[in-house]
Amino acid sequence: MNLVPVRTQSFGRKYGRAALSGLAIVVLTFSGYKLHLNAATAVLLCLLIVVWQSLNGFALSAVVSLIAAACWDFFFLPPLLSLRIADPFNILTFVVFLVVALVISHLVSRVRAEAERTVRRNTNLEQLHEASRRMFLPNPDRTSAALLVKTFGDVFTPSAVCLFDGETAEIYSYGTPRCGLVERTRQAYFHNADSDDLAAGVVVRCLRACSVIRGVIAFEGTTWFFL
């Protein structure tokens, strides 16, 4: 079985969609010229295709906008069947296409990013609920440090978890720390300071009660804390 990388498939779909949009504009403007459509109708139809293409990103939408402006000029603006621009104000057509593509692409990217963040937040809440259920339902009065570390490791699936118990000065760990997680955990307790290392995927949080630090928990190999 041949496996095609997802990235390659995504690029193929993007370029295929852009090629389809460009071809649709050429066919549309040529047909409009043959059917003697007015310029206003043709530009609105081209604008619909530009908007559709803009849902897939700005870079290729700019190319499609250029094709739309060129075809509209070629088939509908005097002198006909020529790319020569008799009136400099006709350049505004391309500017309008480009602005529409930019605005639509920006709005779509924001909506998609927010949707992804919402999905991740919901997943995180489900994980927190599952961790709480595992820790407190069986023996709510006997939650040990070892159980806490194991539960977080099983539920959040990081590469490593470390817990420093301030009362016993003991370190509890899960997984295989690779970025000095144990030392980071210990130092955070003595400095009473949280820390984030996005590059290494390390999150260190102090555990406090009534403003008094009781311990430190650290995660490695997870990014959900940075959301």
Strand and helix order: HHHHHEEHEEE
How much helix, percentage-wise, in residues?
55-70%
Q: Strand order across the biggest sheet?
A: 2-1-5-4-3
pLDDT average, as an integer?
82
Provide the structure class. Answer: alpha+beta
Low-confidence stretches: 1-9
How many domains is the backbone divided into? 2
Strand content: 5-15%
Can you count the beta strands?
Answer: 5
- The coarse silhouette is rod-shaped
The profile of the biggest β sheet is:
5 strands, antiparallel
Radius of gyration: 29 Å
Distance between the termini: 37 Å
Task: Summarize the helices and strands and which ones pair or pack.
Layout: H1 6-34, H2 39-54, H3 58-76, H4 91-136, H5 145-156, E1 160-165, E2 170-175, H6 181-191, E3 195-197, E4 202-209, E5 212-220
Antiparallel strand pairs: 1-2, 1-5, 3-4, 4-5
Helix pairs in contact: 1-2, 1-3, 2-3, 2-4, 3-4, 4-5
What can you tell me about this protein's structure?
With 227 residues, the protein is α+β, with helices and mostly antiparallel strands. The chain has 6 helices and 5 strands. The chain folds into 2 domains: 6-114, no CATH class; 144-226, GAF domain (Beta-Lactamase, 2-Layer Sandwich), CATH 3.30.450. Helices cover 59% and strands 14% of the residues. It has a 5-stranded antiparallel β-sheet with strand order 2-1-5-4-3, with helices on both faces. Helix 1 (6-34) packs parallel to helix 3, helix 2 runs antiparallel to helix 3 and helix 3 (58-76) runs antiparallel to helix 4 (91-136). The longest helix is centred in the middle third of the chain and has 46 residues, at 91-136. 24% of the residues are buried.
